[in-house]
Amino acid sequence: MSNLLDLAPVIPVVVLDDAESAVPVARALVSGGLPVVEVTLRTPAALDAIRRIAAEVPEAVVGAGTVRSPRDVAAATGAGARFLVSPGTTPGLLTAMLDSGVPFLPGVATATEAMTLADSGVREFKFFPAEPAGGVAYLKALSGPLPDARFCPTGGITPSNAPAYLALPNVACVGGTWLTPRGLVAAGDFARIEKLAAEAAALRP
Fold it and tell me: What is the set of domains in the chain, with CATH numbers?
Protein backbone atom coordinates (compact mmCIF):
# COMPACT_ATOMS: atom_id res chain seq x y z
CA MET A 1 0.00 0.00 0.00
CA SER A 2 3.00 2.28 0.51
CA ASN A 3 3.20 3.48 -3.08
CA LEU A 4 -0.54 4.26 -3.14
CA LEU A 5 -0.35 6.25 0.07
CA ASP A 6 2.48 8.31 -1.36
CA LEU A 7 0.77 9.27 -4.63
CA ALA A 8 -1.17 12.22 -3.22
CA PRO A 9 -1.84 13.88 0.13
CA VAL A 10 -5.58 13.19 -0.06
CA ILE A 11 -7.55 10.08 -1.04
CA PRO A 12 -11.05 11.12 -2.11
CA VAL A 13 -13.70 9.06 -0.33
CA VAL A 14 -16.47 8.90 -2.93
CA VAL A 15 -20.11 7.92 -2.39
CA LEU A 16 -21.95 7.46 -5.68
CA ASP A 17 -25.69 7.01 -5.99
CA ASP A 18 -25.51 6.65 -9.78
CA ALA A 19 -22.80 4.69 -11.60
CA GLU A 20 -23.23 7.01 -14.60
CA SER A 21 -21.35 9.66 -12.62
CA ALA A 22 -18.39 7.40 -11.82
CA VAL A 23 -16.25 8.03 -14.88
CA PRO A 24 -16.60 11.85 -15.02
CA VAL A 25 -16.00 12.07 -11.25
CA ALA A 26 -12.86 9.95 -11.49
CA ARG A 27 -11.58 11.95 -14.46
CA ALA A 28 -12.15 15.21 -12.61
CA LEU A 29 -10.27 13.95 -9.54
CA VAL A 30 -7.35 12.69 -11.59
CA SER A 31 -7.21 15.92 -13.60
CA GLY A 32 -7.08 17.83 -10.33
CA GLY A 33 -4.07 15.83 -9.18
CA LEU A 34 -5.64 13.06 -7.07
CA PRO A 35 -5.11 9.72 -8.85
CA VAL A 36 -6.19 7.44 -5.98
CA VAL A 37 -9.98 7.13 -5.74
CA GLU A 38 -11.82 5.22 -3.01
CA VAL A 39 -15.41 4.35 -3.93
CA THR A 40 -17.30 3.32 -0.82
CA LEU A 41 -19.55 0.27 -0.83
CA ARG A 42 -22.39 2.25 0.72
CA THR A 43 -24.72 2.33 -2.27
CA PRO A 44 -26.08 -0.21 -4.77
CA ALA A 45 -24.20 1.64 -7.52
CA ALA A 46 -20.77 1.23 -5.93
CA LEU A 47 -19.58 -1.98 -7.57
CA ASP A 48 -20.70 -0.88 -11.02
CA ALA A 49 -18.98 2.47 -10.40
CA ILE A 50 -15.71 0.70 -9.56
CA ARG A 51 -16.09 -1.50 -12.64
CA ARG A 52 -16.58 1.51 -14.91
CA ILE A 53 -13.69 3.49 -13.49
CA ALA A 54 -11.36 0.50 -13.75
CA ALA A 55 -12.33 0.01 -17.40
CA GLU A 56 -12.54 3.62 -18.60
CA VAL A 57 -10.14 5.65 -16.44
CA PRO A 58 -6.91 3.63 -16.44
CA GLU A 59 -4.96 6.56 -15.01
CA ALA A 60 -7.02 6.32 -11.82
CA VAL A 61 -6.11 3.87 -9.07
CA VAL A 62 -9.60 2.87 -7.99
CA GLY A 63 -10.30 1.04 -4.76
CA ALA A 64 -13.23 0.05 -2.58
CA GLY A 65 -14.03 1.56 0.80
CA THR A 66 -16.41 0.48 3.56
CA VAL A 67 -15.28 -3.12 3.04
CA ARG A 68 -16.81 -5.03 5.95
CA SER A 69 -16.83 -8.73 5.07
CA PRO A 70 -15.09 -11.41 3.01
CA ARG A 71 -18.03 -11.14 0.60
CA ASP A 72 -17.25 -7.44 0.11
CA VAL A 73 -13.61 -8.31 -0.57
CA ALA A 74 -14.58 -10.79 -3.28
CA ALA A 75 -17.13 -8.45 -4.87
CA ALA A 76 -14.79 -5.44 -4.86
CA THR A 77 -11.80 -7.23 -6.32
CA GLY A 78 -14.06 -8.89 -8.85
CA ALA A 79 -15.21 -5.46 -9.97
CA GLY A 80 -11.63 -4.30 -10.46
CA ALA A 81 -10.77 -2.63 -7.16
CA ARG A 82 -7.00 -2.22 -6.87
CA PHE A 83 -7.05 -1.65 -3.11
CA LEU A 84 -9.40 -2.14 -0.17
CA VAL A 85 -10.24 0.05 2.82
CA SER A 86 -12.21 -1.12 5.86
CA PRO A 87 -13.74 0.91 8.71
CA GLY A 88 -12.65 -1.73 11.23
CA THR A 89 -11.13 -5.18 11.17
CA THR A 90 -12.39 -8.62 12.18
CA PRO A 91 -10.33 -11.82 11.97
CA GLY A 92 -12.34 -13.09 9.01
CA LEU A 93 -12.07 -9.82 7.15
CA LEU A 94 -8.33 -9.60 7.79
CA THR A 95 -7.82 -13.10 6.37
CA ALA A 96 -9.84 -12.24 3.27
CA MET A 97 -7.93 -9.02 2.70
CA LEU A 98 -4.58 -10.75 3.19
CA ASP A 99 -5.65 -13.41 0.67
CA SER A 100 -7.03 -10.92 -1.84
CA GLY A 101 -3.72 -10.13 -3.50
CA VAL A 102 -4.38 -6.38 -3.46
CA PRO A 103 -3.14 -3.72 -1.02
CA PHE A 104 -5.47 -2.86 1.85
CA LEU A 105 -5.90 -0.37 4.66
CA PRO A 106 -7.57 -1.98 7.68
CA GLY A 107 -9.42 0.39 9.96
CA VAL A 108 -8.12 0.97 13.49
CA ALA A 109 -8.98 3.41 16.25
CA THR A 110 -6.70 2.27 19.09
CA ALA A 111 -3.10 1.29 19.75
CA THR A 112 -4.23 -2.24 20.61
CA GLU A 113 -5.94 -2.67 17.26
CA ALA A 114 -2.85 -1.47 15.40
CA MET A 115 -0.58 -3.74 17.44
CA THR A 116 -2.84 -6.73 16.85
CA LEU A 117 -2.75 -6.18 13.09
CA ALA A 118 1.02 -5.62 13.23
CA ASP A 119 1.29 -9.23 14.43
CA SER A 120 0.06 -10.18 10.93
CA GLY A 121 2.63 -7.96 9.24
CA VAL A 122 0.34 -4.97 8.66
CA ARG A 123 2.07 -1.59 9.03
CA GLU A 124 -0.34 0.79 7.28
CA PHE A 125 -3.79 1.60 8.57
CA LYS A 126 -6.89 3.68 8.14
CA PHE A 127 -7.35 5.69 11.35
CA PHE A 128 -11.11 5.97 11.72
CA PRO A 129 -13.07 7.89 12.82
CA ALA A 130 -10.15 10.28 13.04
CA GLU A 131 -11.64 13.31 14.75
CA PRO A 132 -13.91 11.49 17.25
CA ALA A 133 -11.12 9.00 18.05
CA GLY A 134 -8.65 11.66 19.17
CA GLY A 135 -7.48 13.39 16.03
CA VAL A 136 -4.04 14.90 15.58
CA ALA A 137 -3.11 14.67 19.25
CA TYR A 138 -3.87 10.94 19.39
CA LEU A 139 -1.86 10.12 16.27
CA LYS A 140 1.03 12.24 17.53
CA ALA A 141 1.01 10.23 20.75
CA LEU A 142 1.09 6.94 18.80
CA SER A 143 4.22 7.90 16.85
CA GLY A 144 6.47 7.17 19.83
CA PRO A 145 5.39 3.65 20.83
CA LEU A 146 4.43 2.61 17.26
CA PRO A 147 7.21 4.11 15.13
CA ASP A 148 6.67 1.75 12.19
CA ALA A 149 2.95 2.43 11.78
CA ARG A 150 1.68 4.70 9.00
CA PHE A 151 -1.86 6.06 8.96
CA CYS A 152 -4.43 7.47 6.59
CA PRO A 153 -6.86 9.31 8.88
CA THR A 154 -10.47 9.63 7.70
CA GLY A 155 -13.61 10.80 9.44
CA GLY A 156 -14.04 14.48 10.08
CA ILE A 157 -11.14 15.52 7.87
CA THR A 158 -11.61 18.89 6.18
CA PRO A 159 -9.43 21.25 4.15
CA SER A 160 -8.85 23.29 7.32
CA ASN A 161 -7.62 20.47 9.57
CA ALA A 162 -5.96 18.26 6.94
CA PRO A 163 -2.61 20.13 7.01
CA ALA A 164 -2.20 19.44 10.74
CA TYR A 165 -2.62 15.71 10.09
CA LEU A 166 -0.33 15.76 7.07
CA ALA A 167 2.41 17.43 9.12
CA LEU A 168 2.66 14.35 11.37
CA PRO A 169 5.50 11.94 10.53
CA ASN A 170 3.25 8.88 10.85
CA VAL A 171 0.54 10.20 8.51
CA ALA A 172 1.05 9.31 4.86
CA CYS A 173 -2.14 10.91 3.55
CA VAL A 174 -5.70 11.66 4.62
CA GLY A 175 -9.08 10.56 3.30
CA GLY A 176 -11.90 12.99 2.74
CA THR A 177 -15.46 13.17 1.47
CA TRP A 178 -15.48 16.92 0.88
CA LEU A 179 -14.12 16.56 -2.67
CA THR A 180 -17.24 14.95 -4.14
CA PRO A 181 -20.29 16.27 -2.29
CA ARG A 182 -23.52 14.69 -3.47
CA GLY A 183 -24.88 18.05 -4.64
CA LEU A 184 -22.01 18.65 -7.05
CA VAL A 185 -22.13 15.09 -8.36
CA ALA A 186 -25.89 15.25 -8.90
CA ALA A 187 -25.54 18.60 -10.67
CA GLY A 188 -22.77 17.28 -12.90
CA ASP A 189 -20.44 20.06 -11.74
CA PHE A 190 -17.27 18.13 -12.47
CA ALA A 191 -15.30 21.32 -13.05
CA ARG A 192 -15.88 22.26 -9.41
CA ILE A 193 -14.84 18.77 -8.31
CA GLU A 194 -11.63 19.13 -10.32
CA LYS A 195 -10.98 22.47 -8.61
CA LEU A 196 -11.53 20.95 -5.15
CA ALA A 197 -9.14 18.15 -6.10
CA ALA A 198 -6.48 20.62 -7.20
CA GLU A 199 -6.80 22.49 -3.90
CA ALA A 200 -6.52 19.22 -1.97
CA ALA A 201 -3.49 18.11 -3.98
CA ALA A 202 -1.70 21.25 -2.75
CA LEU A 203 -2.54 20.71 0.94
CA ARG A 204 0.62 18.96 2.10
CA PRO A 205 2.61 21.52 4.11
Answer: 2-201 (3.20.20.70)
